[in-house]
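Moderator note: this is an archived Q&A kept for reference. The question asked for a predicted structure of one protein chain; the sequence and the answer are reproduced below.
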Amino acid sequence: MKYIRFLHNQKICYGRLEDDEIVIIDKAPWLATYSDLHKIKYDHTVQILNPCSPNKIIGVALNYPGVAKGEENSEPLVFLKSTSKIVGHNGTVLNPYSKTNVWGECELAIVIGAESSQLTPDNASDHIFGYTIGNDITAENLDGRDHHLAKSKAADSFCALGPYIDTDFEPKEQQIKGFHNSILLREGRLSDRLWLEKELLVWLTSWMTLEPGDVILTGAPNRVRSRIYLEENDIFVSSIDGLGELKISFKNRNEG
């Protein structure tokens, strides 16, 4: 099933996609057994929002061969992103930094469906609600500091998710691509990832409790050309076969 979060009659709602209709449901679908309310037409009047409102967004770095430049990590390298002002499909990333290079990264995102602690390889998959597409917006840091630190990763709107959560999606050999102004920038296959779902969840929940609706960004594939930085009115599209496209635009915040 595909679930979306959207604005309807000035109210934030969750819904289940059924062809050209949305079945509005009475609560977030991962929280408990929900009830169907009524159907509306899925058309241009529906404003799509980011598909979940997580308590935590965990990013995984260097998770594709070559991205790590020959480094071998004995455990995943992770960081946290802010949950404030998450951007949805066709939304706008607002850059708070002047004279700082910013870029986009296309990623598969896991949405957690149940409280998760001390998971095992046998039950880890049962705690995944579904999958969506993420864009891990990142800025260069000051003085050559690591760009996985908070100032680079956790600014308002520096995470995009969408367009929907698919509970039937199974990550296998699907292609993942990132396009900057229609220029192919990153490309890979989900099967290339160094740390897959079970390994990530078992390791993370050995020291952190994951909650329903939390999101794990599973890393960006290799660049196929030199990095391109986002500029005013640029468009970045993240695509995954079988999960659709997540499109965002970019603007610089007006100073003063």
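Archived answer notes: Residues 197-204 form the longest helix (8 residues).
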